[in-house]
Design a protein that fits this description.
Number of strands of chain A: 4
Distance between the termini of chain B: 75 Å
Strand content of chain B: 15-25%
Order of helices and strands of chain B: HEHEEHEHEHEHEHEHEHEHHEHHHEEEEH
Order of helices and strands of chain A: HHHHHHEEEHHHHEHHHH
CATH class of the largest domain in chain B: Alpha Beta
Strand order of the largest sheet of chain A: 1-4
CATH topology of the largest domain in chain B: Rossmann fold
Chains: A mainly alpha, B alpha/beta, C mainly alpha
Number of helices of chain A: 14
Structural class of chain A: mainly alpha
Number of strands of chain B: 15
Oligomer: heterotrimer
Largest interface: A-B, 69 and 58 residues
Number of helices of chain B: 15
Shape of chain A: globular
Shape of chain B: globular
Radius of gyration of chain A: 20 Å
Structural class of chain B: alpha/beta
Helix content of chain B: 40-55%
Number of domains of chain B: 2
Number of domains of chain A: 1
Largest sheet of chain B: 9 strands, mixed
């Protein structure tokens, strides 16, 4: 009962956030928070969710998720009308976005296939190397990706007669997409597929002995994660009015990991919590500490979380709760 | 389940509190007594940080000189930095405009960032972005934005006069060009080739991806070629790597360079590359030594202020570009007595009409795309006072963005790229 | 013909540098099962600390300036590596993923502090006169002497590592540890101390690579990510924890990079990764890795 009530309040707060912000902030700042703090946090939270999904239920720490998201972003940028320079062009958003999701899913499957026989830190190394290989390729390829400069002017579709990048439209679209994906993940892990995946995480030999193909399930999980990352990648590309190789470089790749770890790799919600914390730090580093030394700041936060609470803020919360309310039975 | 949901709520709560704390700082700055909020955006993170640091040195120096006051209003300078990536520059610009309420942004530093901010500026009303040091032609040449102004020149302009010099003065008919494989070198090579090929010169191009640090194979090919001179359009670490390895491989060809090769960021780094760089000829908007009293005074001021605080012996190209653009802003603010009302209409008109002398002594005015028409220097690296310095020996006056070609004809050549490097023979 | 020979020689000299750096990575990984994501950072630390020592001596025209820089760089990296293991990693032994995350955190902080302390200007060591300039090589002609020295150092490192691993007590313990850590501890060996020693040795190799590399190429921020990635690819291709495998991996990657640059410059970076994916598809444990 209580959990249902909390859930409802949480959802309500997220829906009402833009208006609550208007109450406490002047209008332009409320808009800034809506689009550029909350909205951005949700979009990058979606990309981090794809990592958290793999980590939580499969035990795979993939560093390729930002690259997979970028593949969707590039697909949109290459296809749509109005992008500068025009690579293919002529495709409406309504068609380009689904294609982008397919591209990201395929890219996810590909990463899964390359890394299929490795696990743990090997998987971490290999996904990083694959991601950086794609990054370098994109950075140096002019014909398809316009190299270092990337593709600009991806403004997004018109939605109900409003510009997609209108702060409210952007926020609510991102929120709905995030909610659907988040719900989808929670649903998926209760299906037979999800249960097998968790079985692989805990003991792959036993799963194989039961007659399931470990390989196919693993690759499929990367495909699902690719789809999730792709959704985030499309939104991020529209948010950034374009995409360039820097979007999928080493820094952003590690940033996604930082978000997931800060939030907590043990639960998909950690992705969004971590992303929000990261975004707030990133935006206000100049006010908190010193803009020039943002990387030291975020690195320290990350290091402290890894040292103190390997399961991130979610884990920290769980432990605090069990300390405060020891009489309550532990949650499963 | 419960945990995560309460956490989410708690986080939103914190967000609200944090926002609440920020509120008193951000009262709208409309009243005439309120300061003008000038947002500075440059690159202080990552490999390009050196140029960004130097850019903010001159900006700070020039604001200190006028005591942070112009046209009777105080200027509040808000620093932000990116890492030379378009996405990050965009996020910082949004923060400056939307959160910090900046009236004007001065920045960014690099080409892709410039184009991203140009696109962003188009979505704004009553705010203005004035370029920092980004030099991509397209920022102002194609699809310009009414809210984006650039008092500095672009990468193609910087090569004005160089092709002619190599063909006519050096008498070289064939050159090898080694350049980075991305937009900025494309623009520079384009500018060189337009002149050189029109006169009848031949060019062999060697492209290397950005981030190449071992040029061994390329240098071997170049040294075996029949080219009479070598044109080098690399920058930063790539440039240093190329020059050092060229020196080690015993390269002998006369050297011609793009604008970010012959710069204090390169000459301040010690090493064998400096030996081969002496005598190198380059084109660009600045030099260390320019025979101009304004420039000597500016350099002197820079050295007094910064030499003991990590500054270069002479301001870098980024520092001068930022200063030039800042001067444009100050000139216009003075003209309108700091009046930014009415969606900055008067201010933007004053910007468009501003004519002044840049710190280098070059004359600056804007064209109809709000892009600078200015003087470009032909430079030679010389050993003076025991250190390598870039010395201007000629000046091309009032170089516009199309290098004197009619705009339609120039645009018809297409955007500079690997396959369109501007080498169009006269028909 | 001579162009082809030059390119191959370039590839081999580059491979020598990659081997020196990656061998340290491979060594640490082999015994400690730690993926040291701060390996590139150690390269930076060695380069910058070494340069701090080198520059004033070079200005004073001392002939041993470079050697002093080299020594300082190696010591700095070794100390940093030992500290990393001792302070942060030793008490989470066995939690491989967490250790990798810790080293990522360290690499972010240190790279930023390097920028804060040393600024962003690229720097470069100059080799002492004895090994600067060029040497005549058959089929190639004049060739930078220092790059030949690089090959010599790499071979020396390879032989020394082989001797240490196969002929000394430390090497015996290291090899035993690769096979069974618990048993090694049960035999009365101070495993934590061996761990610190291995980390210091691996980091020292990276430091050696850092100064050599910063003599052949500029030293700048961004080199940390580059050399981390090269180490990853070399070790993935060659086989985890195998020194010979690391050498093979380094040669493949070095040659691929140079040949690619000469033949199809725009796509040269891809060749390396194509090799990696191909190896992974055929032999996931790497060319000489144990399954």
């Amino acid at each position: 009962m209580r959990s249902a009530a909390f859930r409802a309040i949480g959802a309500l707060l997220l829906v009402a956030a833009p208006f609550l912000l208007l109450v406490v902030l002047p209008q332009n700042q409320a808009l800034f928070w809506t689009a550029n703090v909350l909205g951005r946090a949700i979009v990058f939270g979606i990309i981090a969710l794809s990592l958290s999904f793999l980590a939580t239920y499969g035990g795979f720490i993939s560093l390729a998720q930002m690259m997979v998201a970028g593949s969707a972003g590039y697909a949109v940028a290459i296809l749509v009308d109005g992008a500068v320079p025009t690579i293919v062009g002529g495709v409406p958003y309504a068609l380009a976005m689904p294609i982008a999701l397919v591209v990201a899913t395929l890219m996810g499957l590909l990463v899964g296939a390359v890394a299929v026989r490795t696990r743990d830190i090997y998987l971490l190394m290999i996904t990083l190397a694959v991601a950086m290989g794609v990054f370098r390729f994109v950075e140096t390829n002019i014909a398809w990706f316009n190299g270092y400069e990337g593709i600009r002017n991806v403004v997004g579709p018109q939605l109900f007669g409003t510009d997609f990048r209108n702060p409210y439209v952007f926020y609510y679209v991102s929120l709905v997409v995030a909610a659907l994906l988040y719900g989808g993940v929670l649903y998926l892990v209760r299906t037979p597929f999800g249960l097998v995946l968790q079985g692989i995480r805990d003991n792959d030999r036993r799963v194989a002995a039961l007659g399931y193909s470990v390989k196919l399930h693993r690759i499929a999980a990367f495909g699902v994660a690719g789809f999730i990352a792709g959704a985030g990648g499309v939104l991020a590309t529209i948010y950034n009015i374009g995409i360039s190789p820097g979007t999928i470089g080493l820094g952003p790749t590690v940033n996604v990991l930082i978000m997931s770890v800060i939030g907590g790799l043990g639960h998909p919600a950690g992705a969004f919590i971590g992303s929000l914390i990261f975004t707030v730090f990133d935006t206000f580093a100049a006010n908190i500490y010193d803009r020039d030394r943002f990387n030291t700041l975020i690195g320290l936060v990350f290091l402290v979380i890894v040292l103190v609470s390997p399961d991130g803020m979610v884990g920290l919360g769980t432990r605090l709760r069990s300390l405060l309310g020891a009489r309550r039975a532990p949650q499963p | 389940m419960t945990t995560t949901l309460t956490r989410r709520r708690a986080l939103l709560g914190t967000a609200g509190i944090a926002a609440g704390l920020a509120t008193p700082l951000a009262a709208p700055a409309i009243a005439q007594g309120a300061p003008i909020r000038l947002g500075g955006l440059t690159t202080l993170e990552g490999p390009f940080a050196t140029g960004g640091q130097d850019a903010f040195r001159t900006v700070q120096m020039e604001l200190e000189r006028i005591n942070y006051t112009v046209g009777g209003r105080r200027i509040e300078f808000i620093r932000e930095s990116s890492n030379a990536q378009a996405d990050v520059a965009l996020a910082r610009a949004r923060k400056l405009i939307e959160q910090d309420n900046a009236d004007i942004i001065l920045g960014p530093l690099s080409g892709a960032e410039g184009i991203a901010l140009r696109d962003y500026s188009r979505t704004l009303t009553g705010r203005t972005i004035v370029n920092g040091s980004s030099g991509a032609s397209d920022t102002t040449l194609r699809n310009p934005s009414p809210n984006f102004f650039r008092f500095s020149t672009d990468g193609t302009q910087w090569m004005a006069g160089l092709g002619r010099y190599v063909y006519e003065t050096l008498g070289v008919r064939e050159v090898a060009v080694t350049a980075g494989d991305y937009a900025f070198p494309y623009a520079q090579v384009f500018g060189f080739n337009i002149e050189f090929c029109r006169l009848g010169g031949r060019v062999t191009q060697y492209w290397a991806p950005l981030g190449t640090t071992d040029f061994g194979a390329q240098i071997a090919q170049i040294n075996r070629s029949s080219a009479g001179a070598l044109v080098i359009v690399h920058g930063g670490t790539d440039g240093l790597a190329f020059m050092t390895q060229y020196a080690q491989a015993g390269g002998q060809k006369p050297l011609i360079a793009g604008s970010i090769m012959a710069d204090q960021t390169m000459l301040a780094a010690r090493g064998p590359h400096r030996r081969v760089m002496v005598g190198m000829v380059s084109g660009g908007p600045i030099a260390d030594v320019i025979d101009d009293p304004d420039w000597r005074e500016f350099v002197e001021r820079y050295r007094r202020r910064w030499l003991n605080e990590g500054g270069f012996p002479s301001p870098s190209i980024h520092a001068v570009n930022y200063a030039t653009n800042l001067w444009g802003i100050l000139k216009a603010l003075e003209a309108v007595r700091g009046d930014l009302s009415n969606n900055q209409q008067a201010f933007q008109r004053a910007l468009a009409a501003a004519e002044f002398k840049a710190p280098t002594g070059a004359n600056v005015k804007l064209d109809h795309n709000r892009q600078a028409i200015s003087d470009i220097f032909l430079n030679r690296v010389e050993e003076r006072d025991g250190r390598a310095q870039v010395v201007a020996f000629a000046r091309a006056n009032a170089v516009n963005q199309t290098l004197g070609l009619p705009e339609a004809q120039f645009l018809a050549l297409g955007a500079p790229s690997r396959d369109n490097a501007g080498c169009v023979r006269p028909s | 013909m001579d162009l082809a020979a030059t390119i191959v020689l370039n590839g081999l000299t580059l491979a020598a540098l990659y081997f020196i750096v990656a061998s340290g990575f491979s060594l640490i990984f082999g015994l400690m099962r730690v993926v040291n994501m701060a390996h590139g950072t150690l390269y930076l630390v060695a380069g910058y600390v070494g340069y701090r020592v080198f520059e004033p001596l070079y200005d004073a025209d001392v002939w041993w300036a470079w050697y002093a820089g080299l020594a300082a760089g190696i010591v700095a990296a070794a100390v940093a590596g030992a500290l990393l293991q001792w302070v942060l990693l030793s008490w989470m032994q066995g939690q491989e993923l967490r250790q990798a995350l810790v080293t990522i955190g360290v690499s972010i902080i240190v790279a930023d502090q390097v920028l804060a302390i040393f600024g962003g200007t690229p720097r470069q060591f100059f080799a002492p006169d004895a090994i600067f300039g060029s040497t005549r090589v058959p089929f190639v002609g004049g060739y930078p002497t220092f790059r030949l020295v690089q090959i010599g150092i790499a071979i020396a490192v390879g032989i020394a590592l082989w001797l240490v691993l196969n002929r000394t007590r430390l090497g015996m313990m290291i090899r035993a540890g690769v096979d069974d850590r618990e048993m090694l501890g049960a035999c009365g060996v101070n495993v934590p101390r061996v761990g610190i020693a291995v980390f210091a040795l691996g980091a020292a190799l990276c430091g050696l690579g850092g100064v050599i590399g910063s003599t052949a190429q500029p030293l700048a921020l961004g080199q940390d990510g580059r050399f981390l990635l090269i180490s990853l690819v070399v070790v993935i291709v060659g086989g985890m924890g195998s020194i010979t495998g690391t050498a093979i991996g380094a040669i493949l990657v070095g040659l691929a990079e140079q040949i690619g640059q000469a033949m199809f410059p725009t796509y040269s970076v891809i060749l390396t990764f194509v090799i990696m994916v191909a190896v992974l598809a055929l032999r996931p444990q790497g060319i000489l890795g144990r399954a």
